[in-house]
Amino acid sequence: MKQRLRLLIVESSNADLAALLHALDSQGFDSSYTVVATPADMRAALETQACDLILCGQPIPGFPAPAALAMAKEVCPLLPFIIVSCENDLNLAVALIKLGAQDYVQKSELMRLGPIIDRELRSAEWRRRQKVTEDRLYETQELFRAIVENVGDLVAVLDTEGRRVYNSPSYRPLFREKDIRQGSSSFMEIHPDDRERIKEVFRKTVETGIGECSEFRFVLRDGSIRYMESDGRAIRDADGRVCKVVVVSRDITEQKRLEADLREMAATDMLTGLPNRRHFLAQLEQEKARVSRAEEKSAAVLMIDIDHFKVVNDTFGHATGDQVLRHLADLMREDLRKIDTLGRLGGEEFAVILPGADSAAAEVFAERLRRQVADTPAKHESWTIPLTISIGVSEIKPGDASADDALTRADRALYRAKECGRNRVTVEV
């Protein structure tokens, strides 16, 4: 079966045209063609008709081969252009090939034309595919650029050593230009305490081709800290090896702040700002575990209750009762060490954890606290509201099954203090 071939032939001689078509037919080509002999006709054909190849006769009166070649490169730059000349002019052949012609064939050697056409058709197909690939790559690059330059996330392309190949513009407000220039290390802006961990995550991504999400801190050019969440994606070359890593980082500082606020709200008594019952009991359980691990260490827990607090509420109202609770919380905070924990368990009931204190030291502390409260009445408008507290003390023991054991003993001691007349400290051994 003959090979189909669509031709644009630039020729003014009917005899030369007939010889050319005969040669193509004898070499296995089934040719459909358009013949032009003027610049206007050639431009119209190039703009309206599809063809596989241009064969340009030489010479043609009024339309020299260099002019035809220039027009072809302007309108259809990928289309193969072959000169078919009756002249054996080596200098002209070299000049035309330098201008972009694919080959130069003498009309006396038309049997060479078939192999040349086969070769140029294959080359043209390769160039076409390469152009398609380049166009797609360019479109992809432009799409990538359009996306990363218009998002708030930080996008970086890194080589396998973590050096910068590309940074999105969103980096510029945060870092000095010299610190994020191409080829610089992407790890330098990471907080020193997080740097080695993130380097190890990056190394694993390069080794395995599998990225992972990580959290770390950036140190900005003004010295401030931002919390980031980063996701790495490996890019492989044609051989399947990881050649680059795309890292997308999101600023989660505000999210971290909100999470911290929520955790604090969940652990805080909203009226007094002290740890609430749940958080206090968790701290007590930790202290009990510490005592159990180191038997030579001691700790104590105090249960505290405001005496006759119902009278305050009934006399002055619940708003004043809340004010009294805040007054007591502030007063007790003043006597605490940094390692101590004061919490509100509910109502008018408070508790304190005293790490390192045995029952004797805890009793001394509790007595000092009791006197401080008794000597510092609450104020309400023109009223002075006297306050006293009862305190039960118990040491946390290594053998306690749980923190509840120590808390139960302190609660029993508190109950005895109230039974004995209130405004006193009682210790449960």
Describe the structure.
By secondary structure, the chain is an alpha/beta fold. It contains twelve helices and 17 strands. It has a five-stranded parallel β-sheet with strand order 2-1-3-4-5, with helices on both faces. Strands 7-6-10-9-8 form a five-stranded antiparallel β-sheet, sandwiched between helices. The protein has a five-stranded mixed β-sheet with strand order 12-13-11-16-17, with helices on both faces. Helix 1 (14-26) links the parallel strand 1 and strand 2. Helix 2 packs parallel to helix 3 (65-75) and helix 9 (309-316) crosses helix 10. The longest helix is centred in the N-terminal third of the chain and has 36 residues, at 113-148. The radius of gyration is 45 Å and the shape is rod-shaped. The mean pLDDT is 89.
How much helicity do the residues have?
40-55%
Number of strands: 17
**For this structure, what is the CATH class of the largest domain?**
Alpha Beta
**Strand arrangement in the largest pleated sheet:** 2-1-3-4-5
**CATH fold group of the largest domain:** Alpha-Beta Plaits
How far is the first residue's CA from the last residue's CA? 109 Å
Q: How many helices in DSSP terms?
A: 12
Describe the global form. Answer: rod-shaped
- Rounded radius of gyration (Å): 45 Å
The SSE string, one letter per element, is EHEHEHEHEHEEHEEEHHEHHEEHEEEHE
Give the domain tally: 3
